[in-house]
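Continuing from yesterday's entry. The apo prediction looked reasonable, so today I'm repeating it with adenosine-5'-triphosphate included to see how the binding region is handled. Same sequence as before; SMILES copied from the compound registry.
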Amino acid sequence: MANEITVDNLFFRYHEQSPYVLNDISLTVKQGEWLTILGHNGSGKSTLAKFFNALNVPSKGDVVACGINTKTADEWINIRRNVAMVFQNPDNQIVAPTVEDDVAFGLENAGVPYEDMRDRVYNSINKLGLSGLEKQEPHRLSGGQKQRVALAGALALRPRVLVLDEATSMLDPTGRKEVLSILEKLRVEENISIIMITHDVTEALLSDRIIILAEGSIVHEGVPNQIFTDEASLGKVGLRAPFIVQIANELRRHDVPLPEGVLSHEELVSSLCKYKPIA
Ligand SMILES: Nc1ncnc2c1ncn2[C@@H]1O[C@H](COP(=O)(O)OP(=O)(O)OP(=O)(O)O)[C@@H](O)[C@H]1O
Ligand SMILES: [Mg+2]
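Holo prediction written out below.
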């Protein structure tokens, strides 16, 4: 499967004299893959995210997004059409007086012809479950609805990659669940690659692969099961496994022979129901 994002030996610092914020980062993201980037505050996650759509451009190393090297300034608009970003605070992303205008805003910037815009806007609004709210003023919506408006705007661009920088962190559990289930659907139905930056280890369970950043370097990379069963390594970078995985790990330490890959409540219950302790 094709790589949608390739980062090769990327180094980055904000100022000539300051230390590197990203140190020799190399990674790939395949089509339809969901990658989570975890790391403590200041580890470089947001800085890295901005390289995926040429908001930051490498001075040392290379980033190729959807087949285009991000150093090619003429292609930045094209790259940003293919790699859409959604940020943490929905209030900072809403720019227009109505939901439909807001969803259309990115399309105007991307130079999408007017006759295609209508279809794209309504299709995106519908996909995000916002039908009926087209004429609403975005600031009257709930946090979850606002973040869905931001997502609708990003998706109207029909991106190949969606980058979410803590895009669910300001939502309540219901809003968060709504957004995550939409993302899952998009990935399955449209084969979009998702790069999710989060502090929430439970959200990371939804991904195919996890990268952990610490002080600007990739310190761990693997599937969720690998990453979360190694609690000692997680602890060293200030993270804890999701609660269910912690319980499963603790039970294993007490000789309960749980299979590998118990990542959800359902999997834990079903494994325990099969367990017959030796009398
Ligand atoms: N515009 C900037 N100018 C100078 N330094 C910056 C700038 N933005 C970020 N930094 C520094 O770069 C480092 C990485 O910051 P970054 O925002 O990428 O971390 P993060 O992992 O996203 O953190 P958080 O979890 O708090 O969002 C930090 O030391 C930060 O102070
Ligand atoms: Mg950040």
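Comparison notes:
- The longest helix spans residues 173-190.
- The longest strand covers residues 3-12.
Will overlay with the apo model tomorrow.
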